[in-house]
Amino acid sequence: MGLEQFKNRNVGTQNYTKLDLGETPANGFEQFKQVAKRTFKGELFVGLWVTLREMINALFKGQMHTVKYPFEKMPISPRYRAIHDMLRLLESGHYRCIGCGLCEKICISNCITMDTRYDENQRKEVTEYTINFGRCIFCGYCAEVCPELAIVHGPRYETASEQRASFSLFEDMLTPIDQLNLQQEYDGFGAVSPNADANIKKTPLAY
Amino acid sequence: METTLAGHAMETLPHVTWLGVLIKAIIILAVISAIAGFGTFIERKVLAFMQRRLGPMHVGPYGLLQLAADGIKLFTKEDIIPQNANKFIFMIAPIITAATAFIALAAVPVFPDFTIPSWIPLLGGTFVPSIAADLNIGILFVLGMMAAGLYGPLLAGMSQANKWGIIGAARTAVQFLSYEVVTGLSILAPIMLVGSLSFVDFNDYQSGGIGSWLIWQQPVAFVLFLIAGFAETNRTPFDLLEHEAEVVSGYATEYSGMRWGMFFIGEYANMITVSIIAAVVFLGGYSVEGIGWLTIILKVAFFFFLMLWVRASWPHIRPDQLMWLCWKVLMPIAVINIVITGIVMMV
Amino acid sequence: MSTVNIKIDGKEFAVKEGEYILNAARANDVFIPAICYLTRCSPTLACRICLVEADGKQVYACNAKVKEGMEITVDTPNILEERRAIMEVYDVNHPLQCGVCDKSGECELQNYTLELGVDSQSYMIQDTKRETTNWSSVLHYDAGLCIVCERCTTVCKDMIGDAAITTVKRGGEALDKGYKESMPKDAYSMWNKLQKSVIAPSNGTEFTDCSDCGECVAVCPVGALSSRDFVYTSNAWDLTRVPAVSAHSSDGFQIYYEVKPTSIEDRSEKIFRVTNEWNYVSLDGAARFAYDFENRDVTKDEQAFDKAVEAFKKAQTIRFNSVITNEEALMLQSLKENMGVKLYNPEVRAFQKFLGYYQKASGNRFYSTDADALMKKSDFVIAMGTALRNDSPGLKYAFNNVQKLNKGAGLYFHPVGDTLIPTFGKNVECFTHKPGLEEAALYLVLDLFADKEQLPDDVKEYIASFKSSETKTIKEKVMKDVTEMVKDEETGEEKEVTKKVPEMVEKEITVERNGLVDLLGGNSATFADTFEKMMKKKESFSMMIGEDFYYHDKAENLAKLIALVEQTSSIDLVMTPPKSNALGVALICDLDDAAEGYTVGYNENGDFRLSALGDGDLDMPAMNQQEGTLTNMSKRVVPTNAALEYGGYELNDIVSSLIDGQRETIDWTAKLPTAKGYQAVAFDSLANGYNNDGTENRGYLLKTSNRKANMPKVDKFDEASALEGEIVYRCNPARQFSDFTDKAHEIFEPFGLYASTAKAEELGKKVEVVFENGSIIVDVIADHKIEGDITKLSDFKSAQDIYTLFGESRYKTVTMRKV
After folding, report:
1. Which of C423, C508, C526, C627 has the fewest Cβ atoms nearer than 10 Å?
2. What is the pLDDT of residues C744-791, one digit of tens each?
């Protein structure tokens, strides 16, 4: 077997489009022609026009791109993964978290911890929940794995704070009860897919 | 040649005293420094607009006080001198840049002359001239001073014991020395036409309205002077001395605080100087009547804006291209321009 | 043991004869699904999922024994269909609360549902509400999650012996008739039973009457049974398992401490629960629930340490107990050898002496068997000198297991009557004799089991001297046929009906009397027949000896009698070392009879106290905070690991500053005395686990040695030495062994005087028990499992110094004063 196939290093199909750069000047005269052509063709003025045009557009046609950040904010994608929120049930106001610990398990930087106990109503109560944001890499696995859509990534991407702990306790992340009507459903990873119904098999029920 | 401001009003002008010159010097120093600083603000604003940004916005209305903030910052920053630097030279190098830039302005007509009202104590009645030193070899002096400005970056780069500084210094020497030639040769043709080295004579020569501007007689010289001016003032596309992508900050790498600020002021003062020269030599300068003095400000402003505009639009070039352009293109064209001008004048 | 060759899925295996297919497969790493089967218990056939095809027939692998040349197929299409149907049925109405369920992650229902690929449900029935209840202070039962596999009831009956829980009926919808046709057969019948049943305490109340061992919790495949303390506190996967050894009873059960950080605020590790390899070892309540006895928040107190070193230099005696590792025992022994200090350990001293007597008389270094071997082999067990329920849970389980699984029989000799032990099996005979007559019991054993040819003549004669025969008239029930005419009320026809009617007939018979039986509280008239029945088809005999013998006045004679029993019969012997590491201490330390002078107490009273309980002059690590080895009842040196961190000084630090020591405690492991049977192996090379076929792979067995000994010369016993009057027996409640079990928060048994219900009523709430050398005021606690007038006084609180009150005996005649 020959080595031809190894010597051909053009891997893949060659679908390049060549730009029309003209001929490369071969001698002094051609070089001179090229310089002269470029000099008098006014290419440089095209460049000047472009920047001037943008300036006019920005100043007089309202096409300024700057967002004055602390005063103005861009809308963020529902898939954006910022500081976590813990959501509540809309009907009862009780927090959604059931303390199953899946987020704790799946967390690849091992930064989620929770304390649970058996409460008076024979339910699992989450007494405390914390995310170590010094370690969190905002991968979104916790939100994706959460069976109750309880832990989600919220819109708070401004994470500067005097205390790292400022975001990390259960009550910091939980929707305040008086703002329950403002609670937004999460559309990012882990949310119910639009065709969820079609993907589930039904279980027979006697009643 | 006679030292005149404007021939027809010569008799009415009072005598220029040392006090007037001193006041003028202080005014130039203060105003040009301020304008140089303001220039940085304008530069940032213009560049921002051209990129559809807002530029500095938060200090003062529309960020106008950004200049003050920057000034405070520059003044209060620690002045670091590298351990292995030649300390004396390192310390005086920025002063050379700033000083030569301002000295050059001494022979340039900057603002119209005026007499201080007599009710002001001490200074009352003092005549302040438009040119601090109305030399009859004004242009030669200005070009000479600007050439001397070469020592600023050169010494700075060599004294700081930093390889980027050395490279910056080498580029300084090469670029400035080379383009001195083009500046000199390009402006020689207008000088031949006017027959004087005084800015006032240039101004007078073109006082006949737009049609009498030298740019129409010497378009090639104008273009050459402009290109060389960019190179002399270290502006894009010829900002090889301190190009960040290649040599960190070139000769200014180790500078901080106000010393670095002096390079900046020098650079902007030079930009103003070049703009004024271009305006006076090629675009008719100013006229004394009415608000004629405003025209020179507009012309200078245009050149200043052009420098920013070019910076926003064009990429910079390689050092070898720079040399090629200077010696193989601009210099021959300048010589040919002089020869043709000479022939035309003779014939 | 003979082997047979079988083929599973085409692969040849040589397996033990008489083994169930399932066990044979498991021993050879072949997977057959099974939910309800427990290795050491009888098959319940509740889940029916272990269905396999053997020689073309469908059999249940847990219930069918291997035969030579048997060909087994694990999966056939039909079996797979059955199994899937069974798993679907198990999933019908099973609450979908895996998210909060404690079992999630180690749940067999989850595992098998996945394994058998159940991705849809074909069956349905209306659910019934089933309540969550607490059965006892430790047991929590969530009936809704229960799949009625009956593992809990099986283990409680077959292994633990309490039989405290059972399957009961619950109301529930009847299955749709159509299912009978459409469903696989086994799945239908399993469902039919599942739908009707639930588990409940067997005594008909809401609460179990049991020893709270928690083995039912361990075997539960789903989250139905859990310990009350553990419910909803942690997920299984968050816990780190630390293999260790139970520190309380001398059984030395292998356990896993399961640890994780206490809480978000307190990141120090905490033991959340104890688990075990429930197929191979069953724990008692102390091993499972007494785990939080650690010495918390200890730092290095240099001043106290210096004082401790001073105290050791000054000390004439070191007093300690058996809650100590082999390594520590060796350190103390080294101190004795180097500094001449006395070692005082009343718990172990008697056992050490007894072991010495036994070794001298029998020529064996150790007794011959252990609880595990006993369960595998024996079908006749004799227990004497031990309060089986309290002293040694491992032997209690073995005694019970032999009755249940080996169709065995048992003799139980003990002065304190017990209501539980007779329930272990039909063929269990209990002798409630007077304390002091233990020798008579051994003579009876000689009479019943010894090869008469081998017995020395004087013994033979002595035994014969108790025999007599007499004639007696007894009444016997005889069935007599009576014919009468009955009129059928519906048809009006008269019919002749023959009925059997009992009638009493007087009869004269000759009865062989055995004075020994009568002396021990039995009835020799009926015993002969009973014994004959008991001996049917029995091949392997074993005897359990307990603490009463060690603290007996005639301990030496008892040891000789035991040696004689061993020599003249085929009975295997097992002894119960009193507590945790008593055997290790007995072997390693050269103990003294009494303490004198300045005493350093290690977890015991003393002038200077080292304590792992947190109340001493210098803190020591508790058993769950240190590494080391223990010598358990099975004569096995087993390693235990530190589950929790400990920041203070260890005994090794003190010893190192006194004599040439070792760098680490575990460096002593290889120095254990080889003359006593130990091996010079490093701690880190000791294994701690079980193999798939159930063989114990933990540490190493002590080397035994057998020397040919002469027939021991035994003394006759003195009937008059039997104690009379008010007798107190030094005995702990089940689950309590030492201050450490008492410290644990899930052990609730109080310190006190345990008495039968009648006796407790007579004594009142509180009594002063007056001994010869002191008295103690204690609460009286009624224990309905005790029979008779002898009361049990706990000794687990070292501060009460019960050992001094009892002296060299376990039974004392006392005066009770009402308080």
Report:
1. C508
2. 999 999 999 999 999 999 999 999 999 998 999 999 999 999 999 999
Closest by CA position to C519, among listed C323, C718, C810: C718
- Residue A113 reports pLDDT greater than 50: yes
ipTM: 0.81
Range of the domain at B176: 7-346
B52:A68 CB<8 A: no
Q: State whether residue A172 sits within 8 Å of chain C by CB.
A: no
Average pLDDT rounded to a whole number, residues C339-344: 93
- Interchain contact C/A (3 or more Cβ pairs less than 8 Å): yes
Which residue segment(s) compose the domain that C784 sits in?
722-818
Residue B299 in domain: yes
Domain count, chain B: 1
| A64 has a chain B CB within 8 A of its CB | yes
Chains A, B: CB contacts within 8 A come to 41
B2: in domain:
no
How do residues C270-328 score in pLDDT, each as one tens digit?
999 999 999 999 999 999 999 999 998 899 999 999 999 999 999 999 999 999 999 99
Name the residue with tokens 């061992």. Answer: C213
d(CA B223, CA A45): 14
Q: Is residue C797 part of a domain?
A: yes
Per the CB < 8 Å rule, is B50 touching A55?
yes
Q: Which of C575, C604, C619 is the last residue of a domain?
A: C575
Using CB atoms and an 8 Å cut-off, which of residues 35-64 of chain A contact chain C? none
Contact A52 B309 (CB under 8 A): yes
Q: With beta carbons under 8 A apart, name residues in chain C contacting A105.
A: 235, 237-238
Q: Would an 8 Å CB–CB cutoff place A123 in contact with chain C? A: yes
C550 within a domain of the structure (yes/no): yes
How many structural domains are present in chain C? 2
CATH of the domain at C421: 3.40.228.10
Chains with at least 3 CB pairs less than 8 angstroms from chain A = B, C
| A199 Cβ under 8 Å from any chain C Cβ | no
The answer to whether the beta carbons of residues C429 and C522 sit under 8 Å apart is: yes
**Token code pair at residue C763:** 């004594």
The CATH number for C783's domain is 2.40.40.20
User: Which structure tokens are listed for C600?
Assistant: 């350093």
Per domain, the residue ranges of chain A are: 28-60, 84-191
| Cα–Cα distance measured from residue C145 to residue C136, given in angstroms and rounded to the nearest whole number | 18
Residue C682 in this model has a pLDDT that exceeds 90: yes
What's the predicted TM-score (pTM) here?
A: 0.78
Interchain proximity B46–A55, CB inside 8 Å: yes
C813 in a structural domain: yes
In a domain, C809, yes or no: yes
Q: To probe the interface with A, which of B43, B44, B47, B50 has the most A CB atoms within 10 Å?
A: B50
The domain boundary residue, chosen from C535, C556, C575:
C575
Q: Find the residue in A nearest to C126 (Cα).
A: A206
Range A84-191 has CATH code 3.40.50.300: no
Over residues C41-97, the pLDDT tens digits come to 999 999 899 999 999 999 999 999 999 999 999 999 999 999 999 999 999 999 988
Question: CB distance from A103 to chain C under 8 Å?
Answer: no
Is beta strand C791-793 parallel, antiparallel or unpaired with respect to C774-782?
unpaired
Reported for C535-539, long-range contacts at CB under 8 A and 24+ positions apart, including other chains, are C535/C380, C535/C409, C537/C379, C537/C407, C538/C379, C538/C380, C538/C408, C538/C409, C539/C379
The residue type of C570 is: S
